């Protein structure tokens, strides 16, 4: 029996006995394990120094993607806001921490007073240990600031649940999809706390394997021109379903698609009690003939057809069909990013001001799910693409809701039907 001694910030020693993992549970997906094993020796001897927003850490040869820095920035901004709102330090569980960069940032920037850094791969330990130690000693003011473990994330969530260890924020940064961790993770998020989910499963959101998306997230997803937004909605919808089964409800705080990967991330807030309102958990239809998209509720399932007369509408769902973000939280994140000097960057892909402003625009409740690519409008109008800002302005002048999409830079979100968008594009040109 190995014994893991846990100290929570407010308690003295509470021994949590964890028996050694059976071999089968220790296993990472085989591909990851082979890669990880081959790196173990190298990562102990090499030490690549990195820096993110002024925080220094080393990665060795462990998994680390600089391109995910914006996703980490967003999580740190949110956790700091949560800490300010609660008026106390947060308990954070970084369930798949790699070299520990997130744990380091939650501790030093995100208002965490305790971080549990876990990664199933034991070879990460020296690196995580060094990185966390460089931020803060393991103990400060008689309280433990961090713990490192190497468990399969599902086992860790279950053990924490049994020991009544709950967290204000759980970050699951997995390879592939993370639907298999949803239910057990939700069991250890505090009510009012946050769950940060990741999926790199672009094939399911692209509609290339509807049986897989159905199995993982309960959504039958077909190919749609805005499949990357569908990927975010599939993740939120899947978490909604799991939360509801446990007697909770969730709401999206922000949703973030990044083409590096691609990676789909959603930050969800957990609330007590089931939400019986399913008006934002429905279906999205797309007509390939005229390019029109629309949402359908469960009651409307029997009468799906496109206003253009086409009865062969592609339907995906059930998915989350409400706003992708909370305007209130994202607005606060923008203010904080400006306060900390994180907002502006010469590199467009790192520019948080730009990203968060587009996210705020996307929160307009009049905007339906999906987007129209400007090239698609232009192709149907037999024109060169109009400037995106001119098209958005023209739509707004006519009383339509319209915004850019953070998911697809060359697209507009609008409640104007595709046919009228084509007319507007033609008017702009004449
Ligand atoms: C995408 S990397 C994490 C990167 C890190 N969060 C960051 O921001 O740099 C995924 C990590 O999850 C670990 N992992 C994979 N499957 C796991 C599981 N079932 N339980 C715990 N850790 C796992 C891998 O060893 C790997 O380090």
Task: Please give a structural write-up.
The protein is an alpha+beta fold and 430 residues long. The protein has two domains: 2-277, 3-Layer(aba) Sandwich (Rossmann fold); 322-429, Phenylalanyl-tRNA Synthetase, Chain B, domain 1, CATH 3.30.56. The protein is 37% helix and 23% strand. The protein is built from 15 helices and 19 strands. The chain has helices at residues 23-26, 30-45, 69-86, 101-108, 125-135, 153-162, 182-186, 202-205, 210-217, 227-245, 327-339, 352-362, 374-381, 388-397, 418-429; strands spanning 2-6, 14-18, 49-52, 55-58, 90-94, 112-118, 139-140, 143-144, 146-149, 167-171, 189-199, 248-258, 263-272, 281-286, 293-296, 314-320, 372-373, 402-404, 411-414. Strands 9-6-5-10-11-13-12 form a seven-stranded mixed sheet, sandwiched between helices. A hairpin with a 2-residue loop joins β3 (49-52) and β4 (55-58). α3 (69-86) crosses α11 and α11 (327-339) packs antiparallel against α12. The protein starts with a strand and ends with a helix. The structure holds S-adenosylmethionine. S-adenosylmethionine (SAM) binds next to α2 and α4.
């Amino acid at each position: 029996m190995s014994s893991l001694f846990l100290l929570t910030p407010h308690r003295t020693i509470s021994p949590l006995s964890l028996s050694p993992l059976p071999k089968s549970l220790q296993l990472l997906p085989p591909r990851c394990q082979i890669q990880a094993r081959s790196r173990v020796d190298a990562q102990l001897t090499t030490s690549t120094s990195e820096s993110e927003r002024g925080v220094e850490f080393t990665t060795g040869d462990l998994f680390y993607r600089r391109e995910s820095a914006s996703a980490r920035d967003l999580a740190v901004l949110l956790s700091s806001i949560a800490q300010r709102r609660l008026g106390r330090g947060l308990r954070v569980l970084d369930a798949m921490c790699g070299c520990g960069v997130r744990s380091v940032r939650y501790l030093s920037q995100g208002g965490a007073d305790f971080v549990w850094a876990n990664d199933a791969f034991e070879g990460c330990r020296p690196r995580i240990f060094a990185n966390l130690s460089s931020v803060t000693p393991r103990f400060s003011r008689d309280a433990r600031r961090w713990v490192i473990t190497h468990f399969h994330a599902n086992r860790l969530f279950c053990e924490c649940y049994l020991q009544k260890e709950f967290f204000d924020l759980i970050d699951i940064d997995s390879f592939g999809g993370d639907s298999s961790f949803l239910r057990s993770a939700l069991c250890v998020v505090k009510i009012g706390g946050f769950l940060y989910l990741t999926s790199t499963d672009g094939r399911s959101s692209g509609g290339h394997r509807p049986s897989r998306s159905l199995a993982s997230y309960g959504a039958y997803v077909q190919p749609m021109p805005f499949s990357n937004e569908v990927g975010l909605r599939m993740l939120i919808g899947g978490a909604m379903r799991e939360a509801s089964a446990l007697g909770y409800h969730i709401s999206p705080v922000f949703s973030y698609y990044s083409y590096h990967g691609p990676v789909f991330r959603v930050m969800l807030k957990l609330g007590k009690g089931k939400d019986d309102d399913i008006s934002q958990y429905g279906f999205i239809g797309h007509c390939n003939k005229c390019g029109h998209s629309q949402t359908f509720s469960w009651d409307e399932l029997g009468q799906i057809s496109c206003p253009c007369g086409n009865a062969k509408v592609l339907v995906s769902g059930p998915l989350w069909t409400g706003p992708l973000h909370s305007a209130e939280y994202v607005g606060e994140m923008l203010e904080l990013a400006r306060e900390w000097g994180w907002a502006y960057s010469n590199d467009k892909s790192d520019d948080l001001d730009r990203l968060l402003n587009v996210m705020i625009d996307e929160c307009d409740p009049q905007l339906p799910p999906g987007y129209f690519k400007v090239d698609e409008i232009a192709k149907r109008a037999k024109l060169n693409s109009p400037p995106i800002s001119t098209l958005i302005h023209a739509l707004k002048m006519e009383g339509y809701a319209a915004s850019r999409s953070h998911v697809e830079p060359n697209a507009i979100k609008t409640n104007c039907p595709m046919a009228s968008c084509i007319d507007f594009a033609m008017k702009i040109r004449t």
